From TrEMBL:
The keyword Cytoplasm does not apply. InterPro entries: Glyco_trans_2-like, Nucleotide-diphossugar_trans. It comes from Hydrogeniiclostridium mannosilyticum. Pfam families: Glycos_transf_2. Residues 14-186 form the Glycosyltransferase 2-like domain. The chain crosses the membrane at residues 255-276, 283-302, 314-334. Coiled coil: none annotated. GO terms for molecular function: glycosyltransferase activity. The keyword Transmembrane helix applies. Keywords: Glycosyltransferase, Membrane, Transferase, Transmembrane, Transmembrane helix. Belongs to the glycosyltransferase 2 family. This is Glycosyltransferase family 2 protein.
Length: 366
């Protein structure tokens, strides 16, 4: 497949990582960056720290010092506003290469990660990305169960980057590789969207006439949250920001993003009807949900071919994930009018400012 716009070959790449208090992940991830099989003289590494309070920035500076001359450039910058979209705008202001390649700090990349992305772009694509399996840091029975809940279609989502095995054009990507000309045209990230900046950016990219190519041969890994509390907090915040972003860019979401919200609303409505003397719908809803949760738990266990007593918690884990996400979306929608008023309708002036910065740096590699 090739993008609908005429695109020139690309050779240089900015591999970019943003981190906040990720000291535990830095050594392994930066080792994987150093091990990339793409020519290092064509790579610049941009590391952005969000004012970490642990040793994250020290790890970045150590990598910079040790790899001076090993890459085209190694840049360590500060994200004084601390949130992700602001950090990505810091990246865009510093990047000089043909391609901006995003890597999450809580991830792992194989040695051919950069080269496969660059090969895909040089087939005529403007934006590409690949599969993103989840992995765990510590192999314990309960963490394997959390991983099963996270990777199940019932527990997470049907986003193609989680499981599709064929090449296709999609609405969103994980660890995307973007030609810099894309950002020169559409601008930077909306700094008001702390967790949904990718959804909104990908929508603007598609609206500008570009396509997002999902290439299953490209693979990277995301570390599953280390505990149930952290996982539920993550789901709640994801849902919360979807609720807020509806007021800025409702087109950047699919229906499946709102299924947990519909579930939470159904719980509230059927509970109210039960209080008023009509319990049938509530009983029917919970019966159907219970059957589906048990069936999906059995499917997950069969697929892993590895059973532990903690796997029996999967139906409950599914419920907690759905409730966290749905409740977050509901709270976000309730707060939406106040949030829009505070943030001038959700608009971010940095979106346009990045275009100027990107064009100024264009051709920075000579």
């Amino acid at each position: 497949m090739a993008d609908v716009k005429r695109l020139e070959p690309v050779s240089t790449v900015s591999l970019c990582i943003i981190a906040y208090n990720e000291q535990a992940c830095m050594d392994s991830l930066l080792h994987e960056v150093r091990a990339q099989d793409y020519p290092h003289e064509l790579m610049e590494i941009i590391l952005v720290d969000g004012l970490s309070t642990d040793g994250t920035k020290e790890k970045m500076l150590e990598f910079q010092q040790k790899n001076e001359g090993a890459f085209r450039r190694v840049v360590v910058a500060d994200n004084e506003k601390r949130v992700l979209p602001c950090g990505w705008n810091v990246v865009l202001k510093n990047a000089m290469a043909d391609v901006i390649l995003r890597v999450d700090a809580h991830s792992s990349i194989p040695v051919d990660f950069v080269s496969k992305n660059m090969a895909c772009l040089n087939r005529g694509e403007a934006v590409c990305g690949g599969r993103r399996p989840n992995i765990i840091d510590e192999d314990t029975p309960f963490k394997r169960t959390l991983l099963m809940a996270e990777t199940s279609m019932f527990g997470s989502s049907v986003a193609p980057y989680r499981r599709k095995q064929e090449e296709l054009y999609v609405k969103s990507l994980f660890h995307g590789a973007y030609r810099r000309t894309v950002f020169e045209e559409v601008g930077g990230y909306n700094e008001n969207l702390w967790r949904t900046e990718d959804n909104e950016m990908n929508y603007r990219i598609r609206a500008a006439g570009y396509r997002l190519c999902y290439e299953p041969e490209i693979i990277s890994y995301q570390h599953t949250r280390n505990g149930l509390g952290k996982m539920l907090k993550q789901k709640y915040k994801n849902g919360y920001w979807i609720g807020l972003t509806v007021g800025v860019c409702p087109q950047c979401f699919s229906l499946y993003h709102f299924v947990p919200l519909a579930f939470v609303c159904a719980i509230l409505v059927t509970a109210l009807l039960a209080v008023l003397g009509h319990p049938l719908l509530m009983a029917l809803m919970w019966s159907l949900y219970g059957i589906l949760a048990v069936a999906m738990a059995c499917k997950a266990i069969i697929e892993t071919r590895r059973f532990h007593i903690s796997n029996l918690l999967l139906p409950l884990l599914f419920l907690l994930l759905h409730l966290s996400y749905g409740a977050g979306t509901l709270v976000g929608l309730v707060k939406l009018p106040f949030w829009l008023r505070k943030h001038s309708g959700g608009r971010s002036p940095e979106v346009e400012e990045i275009k100027t910065a990107m064009k100024k740096n264009h051709g920075g590699f000579q």
